[in-house]
Structure prediction request, 246 residues.
Amino acid sequence: MQALIERYQQEVGHAYNAGENRARQTLVLLQTTNNGLNEQLVLLQRQIDSSESNGCLSENTFKKKCIAMVSAALVIIMLAGGGIWYYQAQHSPSLVLLPVPVTVQVKSVSTTQPATVANVDVVNNADKIMMTDTVGLWQQRYYEGTRQPYIAVRSIDGSYIVKDCEGTFSYYFNRTHHSTRVPANLIFSANDRQFSVYRIPYGNGSSHQQWLNSQSLSINKNIFSNNGYKSSSLALASVCNNTVPF
Prediction:
């Protein structure tokens, strides 16, 4: 944008200089014409003086010559002045509205997103889940500190799928096992120790029926079994409804 402004200023400067040169040339032409008219007026005055002495130049003839000379001078002046005005109107600097550059951050939409999230100080840490060594079995648990209930299943690499009282499924990605890119339906929400926590608002692993009707689901290339899901889900519903404790 700065380069465009500088180029525009240079072009305006060149045009303005060219206009000044043309105006100077026109003024020189006007001065030359004026000098010629003055010479003709002097010559006419001499003729008048000579005619008066000789009586051969009538008053009407004198008026006609004066009118013709004045008319010619006016035509020349108007044409020259009009030329100067038109040229200046076409080439003189004028106010031009230039677009103001706006910095916009554009994020490309893709089917995957980075799993490792840096500088997450502004994101609140998730409630800590209880760790288990049992793989492939849904179990009843509660968040450390809040004692809020949830159910979860662990994969071989130490990642978890968690379902809370709201019926929301979350993916706790174990960053210490491997680094990969997660599917687009996994939305990062917080951190919990070595886990990056992703909500699963839609797609694979996001609904109760998917877990109920499938033997296992693959989430981010991890296999999570539905073993014990039905009974654990019923127990979670009972606890969330304050009918029975875990």
Observations:
- The first helix runs from residue 2 to 54.
